[in-house]
Amino acid sequence: MPLTPSYGDRRAGPVVRLYRRTERRLLELLAKTIAPGVGHLAVWALRLLMRLTRFRGDVATILDDTDRELPARLQEALTAAWRDGTTVARTDLPGPHAAADERALQRLIADTLASVRSTHQHVPRVMESAYRRIIDEAVRAEQTSGPAARARAVHRALNAFARQGITGFVDARGRRYDLVSYVEIAVRSAITRAEVDAYCAQAQADGHDLVIVSDVTGACELCRPFEGQVLSISGATVGAVSRAASNGRPVAVTVLCSIAEARARGLWHPGCRHTITVWTPDSPTPPRAVRRSEASRAASRRKFTADRATRARERAALVAAAAEPSRRKPVAASTPDRMSANGGGGGGNGASGGNANQPASPFDDAATPQEVGARLAQLHNLRVFGFDDGVELHAAQELARAIHDMMTKYPDADLESVGFRALDEAPTDYGVTYPDRSDDGTRRYARELAINIRYARDSRELGGVSK
């Protein structure tokens, strides 16, 4: 029996499932971290920008978890594929059988592991780019259309990113893929190679050097030239040769090229369904192709397209569900019992003018912006500036709350100063400029945060952040 084109369907499953889980975790992390909030736009954006360091760390943790599971799953898949190829070769050839050289399997495992792991270098850049882009779109939407536009912009951007997937992965032929598709193709291609190489290794061990390629209905231009052709496993046999059949009759055949050259020219490209079998003078014909009707192939293409659309919808639903718990609903609409317990909808401290369902902060009862700044400086040993009568009390309280929350949760943030100042020359509406410093060679922190003072009088707009 010829080597069957597995296409990696069975063996690739555990690795593909691992990366689908990784994709889900990354999308959930993005949605939960960046879910639209309430309050001053500048403070919301600053909160997200200051969470960026932790977001990077969380992305790295997810990838580290994946990396720990990957080697065992990949080794199991490729070893099983190698075993499949060996089994088929021993079925095709009369015994007894010699032990095949399996060093190629170990090289293939190492090469495939390196190829799949290379995606881990690109994922953090894609995730951070999406993170910053979503903030930017939300800020611009609120500046243009008002506070309600922020949530719509965040959900719209999250949905678009999720439907597209974590993209930017390019194969050797220049085609672009999302993370899961790229890994799936890489692993399936490696599985096909393991099967073919194992078949050839066993054939060589048993004294055979020639194989013949099957024909496949609808073959592409890359692999069609090899259909029905005889190839040399070692590359030592090329051109016209003659071998004696078991009845003594000579059989002539032309050896096209080596297995390695055929592979380099496109045979067994990703998704290739061609198979091989050992060529002997007694069995000189190519393996019988498995014929599929055009209707069957069209149905397969439709199913592939439908499955891809389904996965995109599932990713979009995932981020929508992940972002939902992080939304803060107005108290009057969502928690009437809490309002009653607090003494009715008009109760609570009115000094801050903030959202009633926010937790209390040390700045809620401050009477002036100067008092807010003084408390913030004392609590976190910060230099504060711009907390004066030209700033809305509510804006000062919200900025102080955001910085207090950030410094409490991330005490290693290394922030030195914060406040309001004129930033009319700022090149962008917002952003964090990081000094050239790090605590471990990789993590960077903002030294100073400044909101444009003109926006401290208008909660619909966001200022800049300076170095």
TrEMBL record:
A Pfam cross-reference name: Phage_min_cap2
InterPro entries named in the record: Phage_A118_VSP1
Biased composition (Gly residues): 342-353
Highest taxon above the source species: Bacteria
Biased composition (Basic and acidic residues): 304-316
Region (Disordered): 279-366
GO molecular function: structural molecule activity
Protein name: Putative phage protein
Organism of this sequence: Nocardia farcinica (strain IFM 10152)
Lineage per the UniProt record: Bacteria, Bacillati, Actinomycetota, Actinomycetes, Mycobacteriales
